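Continuing from the previous page of notes. For each protein in this section, the sequence appears first, followed by its structure tokens. Read the first protein now.
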Amino acid sequence: MTGWSLAPRLAGPEVPPPERPRLLLLSFHFPPGQSVGGLRWQMLAPLAAEHGWGLDVVTVHPSSLDAPDAARLSALPPDTRVFGVPLRTHWMERLENAAARAARSVRGTRRPAPPPAPGDPAPAGPAPRGGGSYARDEVRWRLSRPRDWLRAYFALRTNLAELDWGLAAATLAQRLIQPGLHRAIISCGPPHMVHEAARRLAARTGLPLVVDMRDPWSLVNRLPEDLASPVVYWMAGRFEPRAVREAMLVVTNTAAARRELQARYPAAAERILTVMNGYDEDPMPAPRPGPRFVLAYAGTIYLDRDPRPLFQAAARVIRESGLLPADFGIELIGNADNYGGVPVSTIAQEEGISAFVTTGPPRPRQAAMEFLAGATMLVSLPQDSHLAIPSKIYEYLRFEAWVLALAEPGSATAEALDQSGVDVVAPDDVDGMARVLAGRVRAFRAGSRPGRPTGVAHLSRRAQAEPLFQLLADRLGLPRPASPV
């Protein structure tokens, strides 16, 4: 990657304005990185400013990123300072590289594929379910299985590399802290080992710690195939209790995750709160209704997001309603052209609807939003994690489209969408999907057109962020602003 200075400061003034207190955030994912995980605090930054907070952020330096986006930095409040710390090759990986080179020179052997980088989708690979991933109850370490040893190694190496980056980020962050100006340290993960680095920084500086679990840590329910080892849970079990015990606040991104974390750490229950990601208020593309019923998906098909039940339901509706491709179509864009190593086009052909299904490559955010604005119904594919809510759910709530969310009853997704008007169907309920699709298609052909889902104002990011910033002011003894500025 070229075009970026190697200096750590990426955005914001050299000297922080002294007019208001500041928060110090350690987050692997943040602009100029384009990972979806970086959107959480990118979008919280302006809301923090409205509540009287300045923000300093330490994240991955763009020299270590494939496609950094400077435009995402320009959208931050002008006094937000962003600093980058490059990724370093961990000593375990250096040793592995040296051993692999020696082995290749002697025997011509191939080096095992490395695990995915933090935030990357899981690779396709052999797994009993889920297309390259394992559910928690499938994770094993069998001494007779070489692959299990390899997964354990990758899991340990990945966690230690994440901690290594976090400690480097904390070292830089400590140089930025100005007593009396910086009031709290916030760590945002995954990767979750940044919480341990922030915990140590908070202990050194005496500043209170806020642990923001953008996704579950010890409670994570599904792991990518290359990292599906008990080592992941062992590491979480070692480091998570320390962070929870020493944090002033622990933030989860769903109510379900909060309840389970409170049950695990009853002594910390009153310090654990929920701040869902929520939908944002940036400008939206105008809806583009057309005569064709378009069921659209934008994102990645990985882990447990199996499209087969949806295709089976669509096949039934197409057959029973006598639909043609000119009447009805399923359009998917993003990393959505295969599931578990099988092309989506092949899955569509197996279900008899290949003429109705199209896939396309990832698009820049604005182009993806334009694509979604042309849909009649937006679908959220399932995930095998009852504690998490797919980020697409929030995004979909802003469009004038019907929404079909494939989620288990009682899951965090189903709970959040209760009373919203969104169609929530269990991921394996083909009959239920078919009923919803058939009803919406009938209404559409009779002239009805969808509007935005109702009853979702509490799911805006602004509404979700309000309690966090008010609680920060209360816990730190600072006055709340009379109203957002």
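Done with the first. The second protein uses the same format. Note its length before scrolling.
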Amino acid sequence: MKNHKPLNPSFYPFVILLFLTAMHVQAATFEVVISNNEFTPNDLTVEVGDTVNWTLQNGTHTVTEDNDSFDSGLNNFPFSQTFQSIAEILYYCSVHSSPGQDINTNMNGRINVIAASVTTDISVEDVDAEDGSYESGEDVRVVTQLKNNSTGDSGVFDVNFYVSGDEVITTSDTLIGTKQVSNINAQASLTLDENVNLPEDLTKGDYYIGAILDIDDTNPANDTNLDQTTIYVFTQFIMNAGLNDAWFNPITDGQGFFITVFPDLNFITLAWFTYDTELPPLDATANLGDPGHRWMTAGGVIDMDKSVMNIEFTSGGIFDAASIIERTNPAGSDGTLTINFDNCLSGKIDYDITSIDSKGTIPIQRVAGDNIALCNALLKESP
């Protein structure tokens, strides 16, 4: 690594000046009229990067800086100067006055150049809450796009997330989460991917998720945005036919469940496709499929979001042939399986297979999302 000499301290003001100038969002132009042997106005405060433009109305005059750093020349108007450094600029008309005279009694003027003001404009470009149905008290994933429209860095500010029953998000709605942003660089964008929590006291219904910036900026109109698509909040999940699908645990891909819900019968059935607890010997063969492949079925009464089901093993059958099938006897003696749905997207299965002394829990999710919309729609219709 190369060694670099430290900056000369006399260079620091120049660096600061460049920084301030770069952050000046829009330079302004100030007009001074020359008439009746006076400058109007003759005392201005401008910012670094601003321009002063002198125009002549009558008479013969000049605009001459006290130290001769600029001079319009005789009646050479309009005449403009842009000021790029913090300073007090004194000027006069060389025809009617001289340097250093009182601006209140002579044809002299003053321009006070101050640091450029920094304006901040951060916008909420987009809010996208993950579609679906959620139980009150559950987390919702929200992806938010922010943009810094300023020429300077944003600094620290908060993004507050709200849930609302209508399409207008305000600070009077229910606050469900806050994310602190340390900084967004000038003209840069930032994506927030956050989980926010729905209050447990939310009543069932459709809700909008929105975000509001807690920041003092020049354009508050773009500090608020919301997801135009509602989420549905329920207080108790109730099984419906929209759950009829293939479900699995991704970490045991190749195994899974076919689940069928019969709401009118208040009954649910399940077919579990899995494997034996140990691999079969290498020389084991089967006429069809894997010799270690196993399947079982279960059925039970629906109790809102769950069902306790008796497991049933069947054996003795022959492929595509009428045969005498042996079933678990008595029913349930092989064990039980409890299925519980969190929402239309996920659930879990707790199994207790007494015949092999095995217990466990399997988180499940859909293999495909085709029936999610149906499940959500039926959930809204549930009592």
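What the second structure shows: Residues 241-381 form one domain. The chain has three domains: 9-114, 122-234, 241-381. We return to this in next week's lecture.
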